[in-house]
Specification:
The chain has 17 helices and no strands. The protein is an all-alpha fold.
């Protein structure tokens, strides 16, 4: 019993820290305080998105990820994909049972499929390493690898989110807007008419082969460009290549190219000041992100318009069904040899990815399309209010299960 209590204490301390900073963010967002009002929150969010987040992700990946280590982490790509697929399947069933409006249907699917794969692990994992009695070994080594795992999780989750969840919300929002009489945006392939004068017959016989090849080349390149432009617009490739994703790419490149790594990241490196600076900037990401989360929860207290059954269903999917399935999947991966049996910290990270609240970026997407903001705020409020309890219980169980 004492051992179980120790595990509960180790699991609860990081969650309690998150809860305290979140409560501070909510307090600062109150109208009478107005330190983190709507404008301030928006501007701080931009700084985190464009500066702090990429610095945190890139610096930690560059410091810890190498080609050899990445070959042992490849299963995280599959694991995150499975969280999206399983969550989507259960979200689809929930939408069929609750029959919500079209714009809320996409929101339910996104909330069930997309977990907070970046912010929460980045907060929880390093804090858990620092706790006395942590089963993950030396605190400094554990913290370094914890940040690397969390950074990789953030990068993978960001790509999947903007490719998948973003488009689910976009499609459902546009359908809802179209039903209210607003014409949805569409993308059409435009073929420009020919404006050049025709060739003379004497020239034609001589130039047909060459001109025909040039014509095909021009037409093909033009159509390829148009297709690429449409794909970019439809799947929002600009959002997929978000600053954190770019930071992860840069960090991965530096980490896997040994000369670059030695030049920038080693303590005795010639340009180690660059690496040290990126770490210093990245350290601001965790508290700022948590404060923003608290400020955003205030809106959920004022929100309405979504069925209680839908909110309860999302909570059940994210905090009951997905973690149970995650245990089976990770255990199966260890038995099959896809995950090293002795690396319990990596297994813990994989399990944690199934027990997280919905992604904060869902709120950004609803703001972008102007549909479902209030409903999203309510979902975020209740899932994040319950997160400290559910995460503590699941983290305790995961630690016991792995030990």
């Amino acid at each position: 019993m004492g051992s179980l209590f120790d595990l509960f204490f180790v699991a609860s301390m990081p969650i309690l820290k998150v809860l305290l900073i979140t409560a501070l963010g909510l307090f600062l967002a109150l109208n009478r305080i107005d330190v983190l009002g709507e404008t301030a929150t928006h501007e701080l969010n931009k700084v985190v998105f464009y500066v702090f987040g990429p610095a945190l992700v890139g610096s930690n990946l560059a410091k810890t990820v190498t080609i050899k280590s990445f070959l042992t982490l490849w299963f995280m790509l599959v694991n995150v994909l499975l969280t999206f697929l399983l969550g989507s399947a259960m979200g689809w069933i929930l939408a069929k049972l609750t029959k919500p409006p079209k714009h809320v249907k996409g929101l339910i699917l996104a909330s069930c499929s997309s977990g907070n794969l970046g912010n929460m692990p980045i907060i929880i994992l390093p804090a858990m390493c620092k706790e006395k009695g942590s089963p993950f070994g030396a605190a400094d080594v554990c913290e370094r690898y914890g940040l690397a795992y969390a950074s990789l999780s953030m990068a993978i989750g960001s790509v999947y989110f903007w490719l998948y969840a973003y488009n689910i919300v976009r499609i459902s929002s546009k359908e809802a807007i179209a039903n209210t009489g607003v014409i949805a945006e569409t993308f059409v392939l435009n073929v420009q008419p020919e404006t050049e004068p025709p060739l003379q017959s004497s020239e034609f016989s001589l130039q047909v082969p060459r001109l025909f090849n040039i014509f095909l080349l021009i037409k093909s390149s033009s159509r390829i460009k148009q297709c690429l432009r449409i794909i970019s617009q439809e799947f929002n490739l600009k959002a997929v290549l978000a600053p954190s994703t770019i930071g992860a790419m840069v960090g991965f490149i530096i980490g896997t190219i040994s000369p670059l790594r030695k030049l920038l990241m080693d303590n005795v490196a010639t340009l180690h000041v660059v690496g040290d600076t990126s770490f210093m900037i990245g350290d601001a990401a965790i508290p700022c992100t948590t404060l923003i989360l608290g400020a955003n929860l205030l809106r959920g207290l004022k929100g309405s318009g979504i069925q209680v059954s839908a909110v309860m269903g999302i909570i059940a999917v994210r905090y009951i069904f997905l973690p149970v399935l995650g245990i089976l999947i990770v255990k199966g991966a260890v038995v099959a040899g896809f995950v090293q049996s002795h690396d319990i910290f990596f297994q813990f990270v994989l399990l944690l990815q199934y027990a997280l609240p919905p992604a904060v970026s869902i709120g950004t997407v609803t703001e972008l399309f102007g549909a479902g903001q209030k409903e999203c705020s309510v979902i975020m409020l209740w899932t994040n209010v319950l997160a400290p309890v559910t995460l503590t219980l699941w983290c305790t169980f995961f630690l016991w299960f792995l030990s």
